[in-house]
């Protein structure tokens, strides 16, 4: 079998694989492909030949030789069969939310001049995506192709390799099977689930305006205009004659510069802040919430940045904000698809990344906090126009016994006034008391804090955050 001639895949150029059963080894390697039936035939033939020689039975010797030679002939025929096939794989889609299905399309092309025999196709997939798919392909004519597909589904986010594709050749008698692997593989990205959020107007838009609106530089008059050099194609009606006379070259008034609102989404990834694992854990809820908020703010026209407690920022090599394009949303979702727990113990690095007074809206998804970390997070409020924190009690999420992780904090819909007026801790464990103190410290620092009970949906909390902000602004103005 000669080397498989590759040709571009019709549906995904560049992902082309070729199989050559001879390329992986010689005839001795092909002998290892004998099936149980083939080995049984060979052993029975050898035993019959030995018995015929001992007993002097020529007829039995002929039967023994036939049984022993038949598997070897099948191996030789299969080994010398010169198939040239190419395979391709296409994912639809290549990025899928958790708990959703994606379809994988496989195509096998016969690029040789002879028809193939029976082919068995198998694709390698991780265990979390489901069972390994197997297909039996009938005879493929010269220049023909066969297409099959299967579905994959994962409840856990991440990046999962698909492949390499394996092709199993077998003879008509089932005596020998040769398995060859293609060289290429694909990657399926399972991103966190994104929940649609209601359109509310949160405070903290000092760096711009949301709702897809922009703020322009005010040009109070002719003297306040900021000119620039003339460029080919500029409208001559925008020529600034005073600046032209001053600089000795043609100058035009600048176009209005839009200032987009900014939003920083902070994700707490500390290992010690979350307990439990799995798709229903507190950490997965926080990651899904960060994905939902990031996508929602991008749709509203914000420039969004993702920040973790380790100080890593996406997008931008230096913590720059991304635009509202689908590429930015894809980068953020791909990052959240692979985010894992960090070994860090604090938010100092994230605090240093924030720039004073230029962050706009800050939305944080936090786990368990002690007083020291609550103090650092509280200082972040000074570097943002508005700050909203969703705090998860991971022990309550792990046990699913407690309905409200912070009894002295207002339940959803009750408003800030429902908090304990006396400021004393209610009954509960020391960990619960520490969590309540951390929540109180954040509120005193100016954060809008919403404790997240186990299983609570983000859309209702998002509306509640807007209600809290309105009450806080009304109280501040009065």
Considering the chains and any ligands shown, give keywords for the structure.
478 residues; alpha/beta; six-stranded mixed β-sheet; four-stranded antiparallel β-sheet; elongated
Give the helix proportion (percent range).
25-40%
Distance between the termini: 86 Å
**Strand order, largest beta sheet:** 16-15-14-17-18-19
Residue stretches low in confidence (pLDDT < 50, at least 5 long) are 1-24, 204-224, 401-428
Mean pLDDT: 79
H/E series, N to C?
Answer: EHHHEEEEEEEEEEEHEEHEEHHEHEHHEH
* Count of extended strands: 19
Rg, rounded, reads 33 Å
Bin the strand percentage.
15-25%
Q: Given the structure, what is the number of helices? A: 11
Reported for the largest beta sheet, the result is: 6 strands, mixed
Write a short abstract of this structure:
The protein has 478 residues and is an alpha/beta fold. Helices cover 30% and strands 21% of the residues. The protein is built from 11 helices and 19 strands.
Written description of the protein model:
The chain has 478 residues and is α/β, with parallel strands linked by helices. It contains eleven helices and 19 strands. The chain has helices spanning 27-31, 36-55, 58-80, 241-247, 282-299, 326-338, 348-353, 371-380, 394-399, 430-444, 458-477, and strands spanning 17-19, 85-92, 95-97, 101-110, 119-123, 134-137, 145-153, 158-162, 165-170, 177-181, 186-191, 227-229, 251-253, 262-267, 303-308, 313-314, 361-366, 386-392, 448-452. The strands form five sheets. The chain has a six-stranded mixed sheet with strand order 16-15-14-17-18-19, sandwiched between helices. Strands 1-2-4-7 form a four-stranded antiparallel sheet, with no helix packed on it. Strands 6-5-9-10 form a four-stranded antiparallel sheet, covered by helices on one side. A hairpin with a 6-residue loop joins β9 and β10. α2 runs antiparallel to α3 (58-80), α5 (282-299) runs antiparallel to α6 (326-338) and α8 packs parallel to α10 (430-444). The protein is elongated. The model is unreliable at 1-24, 204-224 and 401-428 (pLDDT under 50).
